[in-house]
Predict the 3D structure of the following.
Amino acid sequence: MTTGVTKWAGRTREYDLVKEFVVALVVVSVLTVALAAVFSSPDEKQITISTWSRGAPNDFVLTAATELDGTSGTATYGAPYNHTPDAAQKIGPVSLQHIAGVTHPIDTVADFVVGPLTGVPADAALAAALAQWQGAAAGQQQKWASGYDDALSKATDNDPAQVKSGDYGPVPVMLTRLLTMAQSGGLDGALLAQKQFFATDYTKPLLFIADGSYLEDRARAQHLGGDQWGMMNETGNYPGQAWLWLYTFWYQVKPFSTSGNADALVWGLMALLSLALVLVPFIPGVRSIPRWVPIHRLIWRDYYRGIRT
């Protein structure tokens, strides 16, 4: 019985598949390393509390003052960090932040200022200041902290040395020591070591840094601001995640660009657009667009030309 298969009678030569694979692997590896060295994303050094406090000490002290009197961004953020009323962004009557509640509680006074300072050894002046602070009523603590925060905000360049004299209690001593601790790198370690074995949760240091203006100034200098399409950029104005253009686009137009509720509104809009994309095959009219605008026939013209013939 014949199978209709004709045995190859032409020339043959040996082919080393393993050799071909090795050569291809080496070439691709060399090209990858070379191109990564020339065109890779910029590797910016991380911003720590130590670099912040040394690079912008006045901003650090002013931010620490807002943490102490409870007016910082973190202190007034609401869930998941605290129970600040009316702080959450909403979609209509629904507050997405409050659905899960406070899952990562942060007390800016205790976590960012008083707690770390209690670990500083052999400092009699600091120990006396902390004792005075902890022995005072909550109303008195707030009066000291708010008074110093207000005076520091009005001082030239927010310089603690330019603050007008007043009744600030132990606050100036506490914040001076906190600045020293931050510049030495001790505050970074103290915020990472709180109530956990592994120092892998950077939430507290990052929130503390973000409450100041230093991080935002650095981000804007690298074209990463919200009104600079920063979500889809990389440092140094390098093109980054281009597929995020649709998401970050909405932050550039009203009412999103001027709304304090922008994050929730954009999230809700993108959820609706994503749902609409999933339901395209089921939406009358929309699903018929390919028949009305037959671009696919131009792309697959060879196929459709064969059908016609």
About this structure: The chain is about 55% helix and 5% strand.
